[in-house]
Write a structure and sequence with these properties.
The protein is mainly β. It has a single domain, classed as Methylamine Dehydrogenase, Chain H (7 Propeller), CATH 2.130.10.10. The chain is 4% helix and 51% strand. The strands form 7 sheets. Strands 1-28-27-26 form a 4-stranded antiparallel sheet, with no helix packed on it. A 4-stranded antiparallel sheet has the order 2-3-4-5, with no helix packed on it. A hairpin with a 5-residue loop joins β10 and β11. The chain is globular, with a radius of gyration of 19 Å. The protein starts with a helix and ends with a strand.
Length: 315
């Protein structure tokens, strides 16, 4: 009896966490990739079960299946929305596709011989950054399909971000360096060595602020124009996996590997609010890495999507 009670207590402790106001299950077998639209209205899932799919969150409807070949489920290793939420990207390892969110139609196909790891897309889906395994990131004009510049690191480029106008980019690499780019010129504006491996980057909507974080370490926020550090956020021995600035640049929303999401004050790095999702039970997918975060369509709403395809809305 004591053993049984101890086991039940352990399960309850493992499952403890904050309760979301709403949630959506998008796949039962987990996700290779998952993204939330900046306006908080959509989720894009690269499912283990059924390839790519676009979901509308207000009613939980699966709008489109986005696979790269007819009759096949593509292994979608990376996903991204445009900064205005009108377009999206899905990628297999060696190619990526641009989609129109409203119509669900493909708007372009491109090869990526360097091996896709991360993607970012500007307003109107016009410009894209593709982070690759070959230590380069491609800056692409999707209207013409041309590669405008190649951005270099000395390691895999795990995480990228792009400004709404497509002129400023951020790359983070396993070489431990974050770089801010003048994309049309293909030149670094400034760079910073964080440590061993950069886990996430973000850029504010007006391209005035950038963020980068370290695997098993803290992150920093800088001014783009001056390169000056504004604040440091996070904790030692934790990993920030995703980040997004609020529209007014006052807060930064981050997701972690340990099913946690934290809202930070940009000016001083202090914690505004934190949430921790309930852990899945042992017979369900156990991974709860936060793949992406977003501010909801209503005030004081926050969204997270996890590596098991679960989307949570927090108040």
């Amino acid at each position: 009896m004591r053993t049984l009670l101890a086991c039940l207590l352990s399960l309850l402790l493992i499952a403890c966490g904050d309760t979301p106001t709403r949630y959506w299950e998008t796949t039962s077998g987990g996700a290779y990739s998952a993204s939330l639209s900046p306006n908080g209205e959509y989720a894009l899932i690269g499912s283990v079960d059924h390839g790519g799919s676009l979901w509308r969150l207000k009613d939980g409807e699966r709008l489109f299946n986005w696979n790269h070949a007819a009759g096949q489920f593509s292994k979608i290793v990376a996903t991204a929305f445009s900064t205005d939420s009108q377009f999206a990207l899905t990628a297999e390892q060696k190619r990526f596709v641009l989609w129109d969110v409203k119509s669900g139609r493909a708007a372009g196909f491109w090869p990526a011989e360097g091996g896709v790891l991360a993607m970012a897309l500007s307003d109107n889906g016009r410009y894209a950054i593709i982070g690759q395994e070959d230590y380069t990131a491609l800056y692409i004009d999707t209207a013409t399909g041309s590669i405008l510049n190649s951005l270099s690191h000395s390691g895999d480029i795990n995480t990228v971000a792009i400004s709404a106008n497509g002129l400023v980019g951020v790359t983070g690499s396993e070489d431990g360096i974050m770089k801010v780019w003048d994309l049309p010129a293909g030149k670094e504006t400034f760079s910073y060595r964080l440590g061993d491996d950069v886990s996430a980057v973000a850029i504010s909507g007006d391209a005035s602020l950038v963020f980068a974080s370290l695997y098993y370490g803290k992150g920093k926020i800088w001014e783009v124009k001056t390169g000056n550090e504004i604040s440091s956020i996070g904790h030692n021995r934790t990993t920030i996996t995703s980040a997004r600035f609020s529209k007014d640049n006052q807060t930064l929303l981050t997701g972690f590997t340990a099913r946690r999401m934290i809202l930070w004050k940009v000016s001083d790095g202090s914690t505004v609010k934190s949430w921790r999702a309930v852990a899945p039970l042992f017979w369900r997918p156990s991974g709860l890495v936060v793949n992406d975060v977003a501010f909801g369509p209503q005030p004081n709403q926050y969204l997270s999507v996890f590596s098991n395809g679960l989307v949570n809305q927090w108040q």
